[in-house]
Amino acid sequence: MKKGRISVRFRKINILLFLLAFCVMAVTMLTAFNSIIVEISTDYAKRYTVSSANVLSAHITREINTISKAARSDAVTRWLKDEDDEAKKLLAYKVLAGVVGELYSDNLYIGIEKSRNEYKIEEDYTEVSVNPLAALNEDDPVDDWYFKCIGSVNAYIISVGIDHVLERKRLWLDYKVESEGETLGVVCTGLEFSHVSGEIFSQVHNTDMRGFITDVNGVIYMDSLLLADEDFLNYTYEMKIDAIFSDKALLDAINSNMICAEGYFDPSVEPQVVKLGPGSYGYATIAPIAHTDWIALILYDPSATLNMSLFLPAFAIMVLLLIAFSAVTNAFSNRLIFRPLEQLDSSLPRLTENGNVPIYGLDRVDEFGNLANTIQELFSKANHDALTEIFNRRFMENNLQHFMEFLSRSNGLLSVLMIDVDYFKLYNDNYGHDQGDICLKKITHAITGSIPRTTDFAARYGGEEFVVVLPNTDKAGAVLIAEKVLNNVRELAIPHAKSAASDNITVSIGVTTGRVTYSQKWEEYVKRADEAMYASKQGGRDRYTFKELGEKL
Are 366 and 256 found together in one domain? Predict the structure, then answer.
């Protein structure tokens, strides 16, 4: 019969099923993609725009909340009312230095209305730093932050400007200090512009999307394409959105629909999606930034911005197809490969326990048949004596230890017989090695014929010595087996002219029995049986001697 190739059949079936599933999935995915691409890109850009707005809003809200604590502090208001009081000043500095530790920035500024003095507050301040930094000048553009906040109707104002000390663009937050209706001064801090910009536009990686932060008048404060531009970060940069884009729908949305009702956007204002005219971008999303008069603006190409969550229906179909594919493939592989492999695997312990028991697959004509027969042959060669065809010493040692581990759990009995052919060297010298081999084979048959239980086994220990292992056998059972072996060998009636024990071949047997404990080793039983066998030789041979495992000789 021609041998079947499981691997070839499996590959052919697997490839055909895969190609079928792939074709169906490809058609399904393309159909879904073409029908929902615009919806996907719009949803993605809308969510991203809202996320960008929320990131900036979170930064601003956190800083506002932090500096508002300073502005409302009793220590600060008392100092601003009485600037020259050193004790009040030091107490206020201590409070303000603690606030600096909570800010993104490492310092803040405070201007006092009565004196128009400006102070710089640092977390680690010194006696020198508690003195005024400079006088605020209404005609100096550098001090616009203070006077704009003082003149504002809002509690705080937000702006983008240059840090003239670091020559870097910063996002400034100015908060008025008021007490009982009186404006006492302004607390100011700044966010690092490049840090905030990078975090807001972290997901805009290509020219298919472009992000802006502008005010409601279209003045650009942040541009995702200019995040690494030193001119944009370090120096005065002022450009309006209408200088870059002329799309009427976009400009109308910015100029009319997104106007703040009361100075700053409420968090409840919804974002808008605007379809643009012909150009490099197809759509724009506009989201208000809460607590500011700014907006986040993302322009995007629908073919480049995809929100994979909207592919869930197509993905579900793909998963179902994959599940079906896996189920069918698994059924075939289980029938052709895994089930036979499990049967072969489950039969191997029987081979280990008794090498004469056939394993699964010996009668198969495929790879499993080859594997099973090879395993059986290799196991036989590795664990059987070539001459007598019974187990060898290696098998005996491994399985005797295995039996002891099993019997130690129940403190079970174990008996071991050591058998030696009497005067076998003289037999070989007198009759020749060929006759010696025939003699050993006959004695082997006599021994194995004396142990009918499948759990018992005999092994050639070496030369003319044999070992019989009898698990769960007491002294009486072991002695009975020893007597059978003696009688079966005598009945062979193999002449031995050089033997001093008998005219025929005889054996000497040592028998030992003990209760197995986990601390015992198999060598103890073999050694005791060997000692008992030596006692049989000393006693005249052609007999057995029994010795308990713990008995002293």
Answer: no
